[in-house]
Fold:
Amino acid sequence: MFLNSFLVVITDLAAGLLGHASIRRHFHLLMSGLVIFGPALSMWVSPYSVFAKKTHFLYRMFLRSALGWTCVFVGSFVFLLSFSVRRSLTLSLRHLSRLAVAGGLWQGFRRVLSVLENTTGSCYELLSEPLEGKTASAPGDSAQPLLLLREGESKAACLNAGMLWRGYEVSEDTFLLCLCCLLLAEETAVFGPYLRLGGPSGGPMRIIFLLCVLLLSLWIFLLLCLLAYFPLFPTQLLGGALGCLSWRALYQGWYRLGPSWYCPGRPGVGLLTTEKKDEDGKPVEPDQANNATLK
Structure:
């Protein structure tokens, strides 16, 4: 009884926070601020911390598979929420299709960024001895190490051979974490209005929602660790910008067109309220509808 009451209180607080209009409108600004000012934390963190090693358990277990973890937990929450309201498998699959779009977007950008890096970068071999005709530097001379350009090498082959790769890069980790954070915030924000409308919320749904909130906290923590312990400002800034632009193109652009055969619609549409339109014929946000009812 105590645990159930504790679960209700915690989930109600988290749902109210994530569902607040100010959080929904300005969460992307929070993510932008983290990416811009996060590298400044490198002046205060210790290089001997356990999080200063890329072999740490959290990096190995969660970082590269962040989208997979996000889709599992968010997909479970979206399915439980949508199916408990409408009992429609078709409607549930329509809302779940937003996760498939995010997965396709991530895979597509990975391929594009890989092609960009291989096209704009070059592979260099670090020479341990001076070339013929060059004299060795005197002791104490701060000459730069000699690099030999290797043509025709891809980034993966270059790094596997122990050589250096230099080119234009975009931080895939920062892009992925920003995209996952914004996706989690959007998909879980409907739980607050759902509870206010008196929707059924059993223990399983609340537990899944709480796991989504914990996952969101973990992604923000890992993002701060990457920015603080492995600061690469230009590449991380580009990755964060790409993640925010992807979110805006989907949730603030395409999904606003409303549910149809070519658009899955925004979270909550068809669940918290029937789709309402203003005088100009534009869809009204679920949290802005005055007469919202569970349909």
About this structure: The beta strands are 122-126, 147-150, 164-166. The chain is about 55% helix and 5% strand. Residues 135-142, 274-279, 286-293 have pLDDT under 50 and may be disordered. The two ends are 31 Å apart (CA to CA).
